[in-house]
Amino acid sequence: MGLCSIIQNSKLAEGETLSNPSVLIEAYNLGLHGGTGIATYIANLLRAVRANGYSVDGLLHSYASLQQKEAIVDEVRFHDLRNSRPSKFVTRVESNWRRGIGLPLGIRAQQLMRSGMIVDSGAAGLAATRMFDHAYVGRMFMEFSRFHFNRYGVAARLSIPGRVPNLFHATQMVPLRVVGAANVYTIHDLVPILLPYTTLDDKRFFLSAVRHLCKKADHIVTVSEKSKADIIALAGIEEKRITNTFQAISIPDNLLAITDDEVALRVRNLFGLEFQEYFLFCGALEPKKNVSRLINAYAASGSKHPLVIAGPLGWEYQADLDRINDDRFTNWTMSNNTISRHRKVRHLNYLPYAHLIVLMRGARALLFPSLYEGFGLPVLEAMTLGTPVITSTAGSLREVTGDAGILVDPLDTDALQKAIEDVDADEALRAELSRRGRNQSKKFSAEAYQRRVADLYKSILG
Questions:
Q1: How far is CA 335 from CA 49, 115, 338, 381, in A?
Q2: Do 3-248+446-461 and 253-444 come out as alike in CATH topology?
Q3: Domain map (residue ranges) of the chain
Q4: Does residue 341 contact residue 308 with C-beta atoms inside 8 Å?
């Protein structure tokens, strides 16, 4: 979701050095094309940790094996396009071998040279290597650590050449541990367990890993009170060993400073839309996002304002895509003897972050009736921008939204329809939701998040 602009704000200034204590952040998701919610989480965590005076290194993923014979060769191999996917040998042979024997010697990460010679094209992988004081690469650590855990029921050892960080923070549920460091794991939510029909995760691995990490970790982090309660109920972890830090967003000042007139011009030029004359959904097309019910409710509302679905194709998306492309949502108009085709429901795939923020800022309202969210970043982004929000009572969305949005049962299409009708027809209501949203978003500011992370790390490291 356009992580490069977020990553730029997290860079270490040229020549800047930071003293210990040191933190190693697992940053697998920063290298994924288009970014993910966890990638946004990593970028915000990095800023908060650095602002609290820690030195911060990153653990990145590679399919290629780095030989450390010539640093520039390894740097090129890491950024080679072929390193974005496993080779046939890895897929067919090595993976089967690792499933059998795991990682008895652990994973030894290699430090990645950053020569500055590679041309910056805005690729997420290159930007990610520049975020940290030192970038380390662990070959296939996500896949192999899972194989090891499934084989032995314990986390694989991770070693860093020449140093041991004071704290290792895994930003997702990866069974790795650094001997001699405090090992901290973020569990964002329990969606694979609570909504097993909405994900393709290995449920047996997920359940076993949650219970193991909650037993063995120095601390567990999560992002909402709802997720915290779910994890305590499932894993039986003591409340003092799990902390909810919530999340934060950091929209660049230049995007926040754009005037309404400029936003109107951009949404017209970029998307052919009119300022505050369309509804918006942001997120991947996948079962938990509840897109089909959203489209049904929107259609029943009779709104004349189009619905824009902005987000990549996830999985099990065909039914949603068919609904979006239904001919019932096509209008025809004639102007100057020219017949034009207009769609009332439109799908926009991957967008650069700046374009997504402009699109959200210009929307009449954000519609986000998810079946479950561990946090719900689009809701926070919309409130920060002053865009009215209609969202779900499920998961953590009530916590994030407070009284600043209209909340509905995500299974109640009639209630969602009425919410759309009310917001569509009432300008005063939209203005009030915009005001409340801006106030509510302050609870999740970068400064508040920084303080919560500071308290967390201090409680762990002393």
A1: 57, 57, 5, 37
A2: yes
A3: 3-248+446-461, 253-444
A4: no
Structure tokens at 149: 């855990």
- 434 forms beta bridges with none
Weakly modelled stretches of the chain, pLDDT under 70: 1-20, 34-35, 122, 124, 327, 330-342
pTM of the model: 0.90
Give the fold, CATH level 3, of 253-444. Answer: Rossmann fold (3.40.50)
Burial annotation 418-449 (CB, 10 A radius, 16+ → b, else e)? bbbeebbeeeeebeebbebbeebbebbebeeb
DSSP output for 99-148: HHH--TT-EE-EEPP--S-S-----HHHHHHTTSSSEEEEETHHHHHHHH
Residue with tokens 């090129």: 76
Tell me the residue type at 129: T
Reading the block at residue 52, the tokens are 């609290």
The DSSP annotation for 373-395 comes to: -SS-HHHHHHHHHT--EEEESST
- Domain with residues 3-248+446-461, CATH architecture: 3-Layer(aba) Sandwich (3.40)
